[in-house]
């Protein structure tokens, strides 16, 4: 069992060495894109929520 674990960890190490890691600039750019999309989606959904809440209030008030 220990031999299998050593083999596994050795293979993991060799595979990790093959990975092309993104630069700090690429990572920051991708993070900014994600944050902007999340911000825009939350604003959009907040506006829709306010509109639908108002419609429901008007329908239930009658």
Write up this protein.
This protein has 2 helices and no strands. It is mostly helical. The longest helix is centred in the C-terminal third of the chain and has 38 residues. The model has no long low-confidence stretch (mean pLDDT 95).
Key words describing this protein structure:
mainly alpha, 89% helix, 62 residues, elongated, single chain
Secondary structure elements and pairings:
Blueprint: H1 2-18, H2 24-61
How many strand elements?
0
* Number of alpha- plus pi-helical segments: 2
Query: Terminal Cα separation, in Å?
Result: 72 Å
Shape: elongated
Mean pLDDT across all amino acids? 95
Helix content bin: over 70%
Radius of gyration: 25 Å
Structural class: mainly alpha
Beta-strand residue fraction:
under 5%
Q: Which consecutive residue ranges, at least 5 long each, have pLDDT under 50?
A: none
N-to-C SSE series? Answer: HH
> Major β-sheet, in short?
none
Summarize the structure.
The chain is an all-alpha fold and 62 residues long. It has a domain at 22-62.
